[in-house]
Each structure stands twice: as structure tokens, then as C-alpha cells.
Amino acid sequence: MKAIVLCAGLGTRMRPLTDTTPKCMLPVGGKPLLHHTLERLAEAGVTDVAINLHHLPKAIVHDIKRGWQFGLHVTYSYERELLGTAGTIKRLAWWLDDASSALSAGEPFFVVYGDEWTTLDFGKLQSFHMIDSPMATIVTHETEDITGRNQVETARYGKVIRILPKWSSTSVPFGGVVGSGIYVLDALLLPSLDYSDLDNALAAILDRGYHFLFREFRVDADEVIDIGKPEGYARACALAGPSW
After folding, report:
1. What is the pTM of this model?
2. Angle at Cα 155 formed by Cα 149 and Cα 161, nearest 5°?
């Protein structure tokens, strides 16, 4: 199984730390956040990872190199202009479509936002996705503060009904279940993506009535923490401890 880790963001909310360090390379528990992510993916049996780059790309490449220290083969995709998270995935269709014809077989792959610190067992997430075989499994959690988060409306058996993107001007119609920035996507979903944000693209698909294609994987709020804001970064560092 493959994984795409999204690391191109500017990290504006974490300045001045991100003026010299990419957000995904900020230290958590004694090592860069990206190390945690790659180690957990490797533990779940992932062998190939693609990382998109834009802000301070050399800092990431010089540290991760080709990923051999994690037991991975890492491919980089540099974006001169940011493509949007869905655009990044669409651009990497060539990488997902290898000699085993992953695209035609509809093979799933992980998508992980590079600013998410997580203790999630990716192997369990993969197994959950494979049992029901939806087009997308979205990792969610409950929160009291939905500011700047993509809300997810769900129904029985974890079916996803609607996604309300964080920048939407629509009044809030449902409670505090939000997307975490971790997904399993089926490669057959790629033609439906455009060069925009992933949650916006998924929301548009749901709005067309394809509710049966999406499932949620609910976790505890402390299992996935967005370190893209100072309060989230402080929380992740506190939970990780000095040497996770």
C-alpha cells in the first residue's frame, strides 16, 4: 500500500517557527513530526510514500532523503505553485499507477496531512477500509471547537452524509465531528478530483448524492492532533513527552 504525505504548506499560523523550519519538521517528542508519520506508515506495511514540497523543500529532502532509514521508498513532488491538496493527489496519479495497475484495480492509498501528529494504528484503518471497500474513509473525531475545521455529518454505520469545508459561508448545521486530515482513498476516485482542496472535492462528490461511497473512522481527539496552530502543537508535545 502507498501513502501520500502532504508537506507543502507555508505554516503561516506557526510563524516565526516555520520561517526557517517546515511545519512537518517541527520537533515533537524529540524528533521531527514527519519522522513519527513515516514510522507509523511503515509499521502498517506501507512501502512507498510520495511527499509534496513547496515551502523550504530542501530541509525535508536533506533529512528524509529516499526514506531508507524508515524502510520506505520516498518520492518527492515539488510544486512551484501550490496545487491544492486534491490537486497534489491528482498530479501523483502517475505514481499511483505502477506496473501492478493500481489505478485499474482500484487499489486504496493513504493520504496524511503533514501537520497531523497521530498515534493512530494505520493497519487498523486499512483493515476497516478494506472490509466495507468504500471510495473514501475519513478519519474523524469529536471536538468542542470547530473553528477552522472541516465538519463531517454522519449517519448510521459510519456513513458520511456531508462535509462542510472550513471556509464555507454556510451556517453550521451540525455538531462537533470534524475531519482529522487522514484518509484512505480508492484510486478510482482520482478522476473525480480537481485542482482544489481535498475536502472541497469530496464535499462536491457527496453533494451529488454519492453517500454510499464514504465512511468515517472515528477516533479519540488525542489520537490525531493538528499542530498547525500553537495550541495544537503544545498539546501534541505534551502528549508525546520528551522522547516519544
Report:
1. 0.90
2. 55
